[in-house]
């Protein structure tokens, strides 16, 4: 049903219906975003929005080439993956000036709570960056994009059992990384 609806949205978008394209983008944004984020890693999170713009531009420009042999989400996943990998190949890790760093805290939170939460997120992001790309992508799709194992298997073109293994092994690796003495010291320093 969903695939038929996607084909209908593609057909309408090709006829110039901008809303149909926006509906496609909204429906599949989390999948594309998760894969771009997984590939770029935390060192390049500032690039995620730029890459997403490229993904949607390439998707719109290439919409006429979508043959419907696979699901639209799979086709979009491949575009997002290719664009993210292109950025990684072209860019070197940029350094950020301390003057450019912005600390965002919610008004209702005390600064120490916001700082601790941000530090914890940053530690998890750094740990995710140490994972194998396949594990990281599977975990991002499962927990960030909230995809089922079957959906992830289709997107990554892997058997469901392999996806479950990637998620399981990725979580085990994350646990190992976060339990290293250096990571525990950082976590204790934040608390």
Question: What does this entry look like structurally?
Answer:
- The protein is mostly helical and 191 residues long.
- The chain has two domains: 2-90, RNA polymerase sigma factor, region 2, helix turn helix motif (Rna Polymerase Sigma Factor, Chain: A, Orthogonal Bundle), CATH 1.10.1740; 104-190, Arc Repressor Mutant, subunit A, CATH 1.10.10.10.
- The protein is 73% helix and 0% strand.
- Helix 1 packs across helix 2 (18-40), helix 2 (18-40) crosses helix 4 and helix 6 packs across helix 8 (160-179).
- It is globular and about 60 Å long.
- Residues 92-109 have low confidence and may be disordered.
**Overall body shape:** globular
CA(first)-CA(last) distance = 49 Å
Structural class: mainly alpha
Any guess at the CATH architecture of the largest domain? Orthogonal Bundle
Enumerate the spans where pLDDT stays under 50 for 5 or more consecutive residues: 92-109
Mean pLDDT over all positions: 81
The radius of gyration computed from the alpha-carbon positions, rounded to a whole number of angstroms, is 19 Å
Number of helices: 9
Provide the CATH superfamily of the largest domain: RNA polymerase sigma factor, region 2, helix turn helix motif
The biggest beta sheet reads: none
How much of the sequence lies in strands comes to: under 5%
CATH class of the largest domain: Mainly Alpha
């Amino acid at each position: 049903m969903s695939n038929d609806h996607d084909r209908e949205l593609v057909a309408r978008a090709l006829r110039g219906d901008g809303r149909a394209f926006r509906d496609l983008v909204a429906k599949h944004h989390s999948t594309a975003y998760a894969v771009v984020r997984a590939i770029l890693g935390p060192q390049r999170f500032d690039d995620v929005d730029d890459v997403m713009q490229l993904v949607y531009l390439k998707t719109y420009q290439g919409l006429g080439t979508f043959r419907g042999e696979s699901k639209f989400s799979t086709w979009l996943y491949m575009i997002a993956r290719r664009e993210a990998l292109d950025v990684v190949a072209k860019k070197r890790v940029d350094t950020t000036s301390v003057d450019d760093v912005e600390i965002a805290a919610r008004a209702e939170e005390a600064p120490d709570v916001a700082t601790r939460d941000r530090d914890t997120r940053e530690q998890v992001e750094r740990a995710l960056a140490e994972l194998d790309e396949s594990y990281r992508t599977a975990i991002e799709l499962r927990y960030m994009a909230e995809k089922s194992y079957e959906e992830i298997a289709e997107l990554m073109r892997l058997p469901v059992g392999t996806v479950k293994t990637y998620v399981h092994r990725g979580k085990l690796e994350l646990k190992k990384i976060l339990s290293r003495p250096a990571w525990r010291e950082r976590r204790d320093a934040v608390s």
